[in-house]
Specification:
With 188 residues, the protein is mainly β. It has 1 helix and 14 strands; from the N terminus they run βββββββββββββαβ. β8 and β9 form a beta hairpin.
């Protein structure tokens, strides 16, 4: 991706082929098409890396629900949804290696048909196009290709939510894995 400007705006678009896992549960297959946001690319620093910041208010992340998410090949049950509230997505782009590294902080809100809405899960991780490894989860990312496609991966420690049932069900604190397939391209 050497055609990026030295600074300016970039469009992040989330795609199909994403994944999530929490604790010892199987990975969720997640189709995040339709999400994304605008980012600002800073001027290169002395090492050539460029700061990249996405305004949280501009980010749209599709909810995990029966339309977007499958576990063991089956859709999530209707009425179960997890909404993602981004709080930060910022880091850097390294043109020399085509790698991205972005700190991602978000609140994951579980909603079970409006009947059960525990406190949000707090997620804080670095999404990287290289690799991520924790004690339980690991994954390899993919740097940006010539079309701006990448796979960003991150492992986070998920603290207890404060809801005794949810914390026990998920075995919190424990790890979560995020796999984000996306495109990042300059805005003309």
């Amino acid at each position: 991706m050497s055609a990026w400007p030295s600074s300016g705006q970039l469009q992040l678009s989330t795609t199909a082929g994403c994944g999530l896992a929490i604790a010892g549960y199987p990975r969720f297959r997640y189709d995040a098409r339709g999400g994304g946001g605008l980012g600002t690319l800073g001027a290169p620093d002395a090492s050539g890396r460029q700061a990249l910041v996405f305004a949280p208010a501009s980010l749209v992340i599709p909810p995990l629900c029966w339309r977007t998410t499958r576990v063991l090949g089956l859709p999530l049950p209707p009425g179960l949804a997890i909404h993602i509230e981004p709080e930060e997505l910022a880091g850097h782009w390294d043109p020399a290696s085509a790698s991205l590294e972005l700190r991602f902080r978000a609140r994951f809100h579980l909603n079970l048909a409006g009947l059960y809405q525990p406190p949000a899960l707090q997620i804080d991780t670095v999404l990287s196009s290289t690799a991520a490894q924790g004690l339980r989860h690991r994954a390899s990312g993919q740097p940006l290709d010539a079309d701006g496609q990448a796979l960003l991966v991150g492992v986070a420690t998920v603290p207890p939510s404060g809801d005794p049932w949810l914390d026990r069900f998920l075995g919190l604190p424990d790890e979560a894995l995020a796999m984000l397939r996306c495109s990042v391209v300059p805005v003309p």
